[in-house]
Specification:
single chain, alpha/beta, seven-stranded mixed beta sheet, binds S-adenosyl-L-homocysteine
Length: about 400
């Protein structure tokens, strides 16, 4: 029999609404023995379901999220076949979305929102070398099922290589050591993918996340449509995704800023991979964005189009206040740099900052910059980064396209 995790009375409510997290403070007791990552029965401690098993969940004694639900069906067994079913279903859902058709880089599994807490899987298709899937296991439960997950991904995609990028800092909270390397196949970790007709090198071993920010794929395409004839400032450019799309869209000039030398080196290589683009219009700057914005503001420069895609300033709710100030500061200076009629594409990927708060921050920034502006579009992650209706935490990326008067 599985070990049982007994909930405090009343704490079954979020489970009945199919929210997949069980916090340490919701647990009343434990019966039986379980090691980290083992599947346990989650039992209601009170209310009309008292004593009933409500879910099967992965136990994580080190984490504040003490268990993550694999299944809300108490009769479902969590085994190799379970992962095969869930992963095949996630892959099939992507295949049914026209937006993703023909894309080389696609997120196949988006953790909780695909019913697989702690599992990220991205596929990169190299025109010459077949498919490479990169996995990131961030919970004790997902970590325990590594072999079943790798096998299921291979079967669902037919990929020839799988790389494990389980080196994210969040693993420490689950009591897990970093782990990375090939799980299937081997060879060059650098893959060249095509995104909207632009070639981009992705290093799955050393790049950020699994190598590339797939969540911004559609937004990069939108930027391309806005770029013609404009002077563009791309802040936090990473390997140049937005920059190269701006060039492809006919931007007059594209200045890109990042503080990571390896990211900028790859950005320059990416530009060289695309001889169809006019490299003389691109400039790459190794600098701190906050300082660079201030410097250009003091020099009274103007831009027609500015992208702000900073890293997570608020990884959790505890950082919200400081992060809000940081977001406001960069947005304020961006507003000051906007030419009349100019466009600001601004993002937050912080889980701790909701869409409403982000809009308030951008509003405060515009007011302080003495600029009138209006939202012309709300932006989010691409379709392969779905947000389960029962898991609003999955909506980490929010953006606004704002036009100044
Ligand atoms: N827009 C990019 C992804 C941006 S990720 C894309 O579409 O691919 C955030 C980037 O911000 C990272 O490349 C990181 O190196 C950079 N970064 C973090 N802090 C920074 C700072 N203070 N100044 C400049 N760049 C910074």
């Amino acid at each position: 029999m599985s070990a049982q995790l007994i909930l405090q009375a009343g704490k079954e409510k979020s489970l009945l609404r199919h929210h997949p997290w069980i916090f340490a403070g919701s647990v009343a007791g434990f019966e039986g023995r379980a090691r980290p990552g083992d599947t346990v029965d989650v039992v209601a401690g009170g209310g009309r379901y008292a004593g009933q098993v409500l879910a099967k969940a992965a136990f994580s004694p080190a984490s504040q999220i003490r268990a993550r639900v694999w299944s809300f069906d108490p009769a479902e067994t969590v085994d190799h076949a379970f992962f095969k079913r869930r992963i095949a279903a996630a892959v099939a859902r992507r295949a049914a979305l026209p937006e993703l058709a023909g894309q080389d880089g696609v997120r196949l599994v988006h953790a909780e929102s695909d019913g697989l807490p702690g599992l990220i899987a991205d596929r990169y298709r190299d025109k010459d070398g077949g498919d490479t899937v990169v996995v990131q296991l961030t919970s004790a439960g997902a970590d325990k099922w590594r072999d079943a997950i790798a096998d299921s991904l291979q079967k669902a995609t037919g990929c020839s290589r799988i790389y494990d990028r389980s080196d994210s800092e969040v693993r420490a909270r689950e009591g897990l050591e970093p782990q990375s390397g090939w799980l299937l196949g081997e060879g060059d970790p650098r893959i060249v993918i095509d995104e909207h007709g632009v070639r981009m090198a992705v290093d799955v071993a050393t790049g950020h996340k699994t190598g590339f920010y797939l969540d911004q794929r559609e937004n990069r395409l939108m930027l391309r449509g806005l770029a013609a004839g404009r002077r563009v400032l791309n802040c936090y450019c990473y390997t140049g995704g937005f920059s190269l799309q701006a060039l492809a869209g006919g931007a007059r000039e594209v200045i890109s800023v990042d503080s990571s030398a390896p990211a900028l080196a790859l950005a320059a290589e990416n530009l060289a991979l695309n001889p169809q683009l006019d490299a003389s219009r691109a400039e790459w700057l190794d600098a701190n964005v906050s300082e660079e914005l201030r410097r250009r503001r003091d020099a009274n420069e103007t831009f027609d189009l500015i992208v702000l895609d900073p890293p997570k300033f608020a990884p959790s709710a505890a950082h919200v206040e400081r992060a809000s100030r940081a977001y406001k500061d960069i947005n304020l200076n961006a507003f000051k740099l906007l030419a009349p009629g100019g466009l600001l594409m601004t993002y937050s990927c912080s889980g701790g900052i909701g869409a409403e708060l982000f809009q308030q921050i951008v509003t405060a920034a515009a007011l302080d910059a003495r600029r009138d502006a209006a939202i012309v579009k709300r932006l989010q992650g691409a379709a392969d980064h779905p947000v389960a209706l029962t898991f609003p935490e999955g909506e980490y990326l929010k953006g606004l396209l704002v036009q100044a008067t």
